[in-house]
From TrEMBL:
Pfam families the UniProt entry points to: DDE_Tnp_1_7, RabGAP-TBC
Organism listed in the record: Rhipicephalus microplus
SMART domains attached to this UniProt entry: TBC
Ranges for domain Rab-GAP TBC: 1-228
SUPFAM superfamilies recorded: Ypt/Rab-GAP domain of gyp1p (SSF47923)
InterPro entries recorded: PGBD, Rab-GAP-TBC_dom, Rab-GAP_TBC_sf
Protein name per UniProt: Rab-GAP TBC domain-containing protein
Domain of life according to the entry: Eukaryota
Residues annotated as signal peptide: none
Amino acid sequence: MLSLISRSSCCMDTIVASPNFLACLCFHCLQLETHPGYYRRAVSESMGKRNATSEEIERDLHRSLPEHPAFQSSQGINALRRLLNAYAWRNPAIGYCQAMNIVASVLLLYASEEEAFWLLVALCERLLPDYYNTKVVGALIDQEQYCVLSVLHLVPWLPKRLCAAALVRRGDGVLEDLARDHIPELYTKLDSLGVLSMISLSWFLTIFLSVIPFESAVNIVDCFFYDGAKVVFQVALAVLEANQERLLSCKDDGEAMMVLCSYLENVHNPQAAVCSRSAFQPTTGSKETVDILTLVYDSYSKYGFLTSGMIEKLRLKHRLSVVQYLRDKIVKWGYNLWVLADSNSSYTVQFSVYTGKRETPSVNGLAFDVVTSLCEMYFDQGYTLFMDNFYSSSLFLHLLERKTLACGTTRKDRHTFPAELKDSTWEKKAKRGDVRWLRHQGVLYLQWKDRRAVHMMSTAHTANSHVTATWKLKVAGQWKKVPIRKPRLIEEYDAGMLGVDRLDQLIASYNVLMKCVRWWKTLFFHCIDIAVVNSFILFEAHRREHPEIPELHRAPRYDQLAFRMELVKQLLGIEATGFGSAPPPRESVHKPKVMETRRNCKLLLASRKVEHKTSVFCETCGVYLCFIATRDCFGEWHRRHKE
């Protein structure tokens, strides 16, 4: 059975099972039948492995319904540990997200471990898609998209493009849309206070389990498995409407949050066999209690017309444009950044965050706009830009007009690529090292046959300049290095693009990997990483230019980690000499000495009654002891007789 609480007194008695409920029930049954032993294998594969996900799970285990008797013993904690680790093994793209522990602990109370596992799978992957991931994209879409505005006051050095994007992208979420349509007066008040974005995330992520007493919140979970995600919106709207009069009189966001918290803490379930103390003895001063069945009934009677289809349409409308679906990445949701970096030092000169499709289409295309905006300060100065095939287009002609050279890969299916070079016959017949090219309007189009044909564009190179490269060829069973011609254009392109590759490596070496509820925090920490790496690059360049300054002298292998440690100490106000070096090891007073005479080993004679002659003598202890490769009686004796 999936139903967690009896519906005998609920308004749902006569409702025919909804498609969401039947789909969830079918999914649950099919998974159990078609995957026998899957959960046991997931547990055996995941348990005992120490990683970032398992450590995060361990930190949250004892925060999961800590007042419930089931999780005050090792049996309940171990079951929850197995369940969460098994799901993290099944879905590494999600792994573990905070709030999953609360939902999983409730599922364990009403189902076996294996049943709870498949219910959690249905919850995370079907009923609430994109809620439980590193960016909690789904939850952010369902609530107000507030975010970066608060960061701008803290970080004035963020790029202006990011600031502009943040100001533009303050949008409404699904809950805001519903509140505006059905409780417009209250919506206006809450919007001015900024309350919805502060409270709704915890409501949705835990299906009210973290804000309503457990024995009452399970009724909402019950309806959730019955009718799907629309239930959380129904209940949220019902809670807001029930407190409308008091919320309208609130003067600030703190007072409004106190009103809502007081109301939710005093929701109780009269049918529950055991009720928590908080349900009947509220701590916020209010003595009114709310029947959970009444709250659920009101949510269905007033907002039961909402359907899953309506919710999905609103979600599609409000999907965060900054958070992108990354099809080719292990982590499917993330951010796209356009980066301008120095080819030699890997210094990040400028970057911009992709904020989604624009309302008005660009005249010249996205690639054109990105490059011109990032390089605006560097035009007409003779720089050379290296770029991949996303940017290679008629942009090169514009750059040439601005006295800026460019080189990059391209694709032959581009409409600007010459038709004379698009035929595939040459590629099939050409040998490795063959080249053909064409120059049009100052842009060189070149094709070089490696394992496959490489297509290039450049305004900075000639076609006749080559270098010698080598590739391995198997001849008569022997691998030999064969020289081939390689255009200098490609050689310099590879060297130029190394700047961005090295930048990625530097940032990835010690980056701040944090799963954040607010999407902008991940972007904020990435900005910090960029700033630290840039500081390291500038510091190293300054050291090379001024070797005569004693204060700049560092260890021969001074790397980014050492720089970060030094930076942390400076920010914390810790002197460089604050950490004393470890004292040198105390010189041992027991030293083996080889004597001319041989005597019986003291240890063998005392412990085994075995006579074995040795010439090794300890002057401190006055005993002969064996000290050979196969037997260290000298060390064993002194371990037993420590002074």
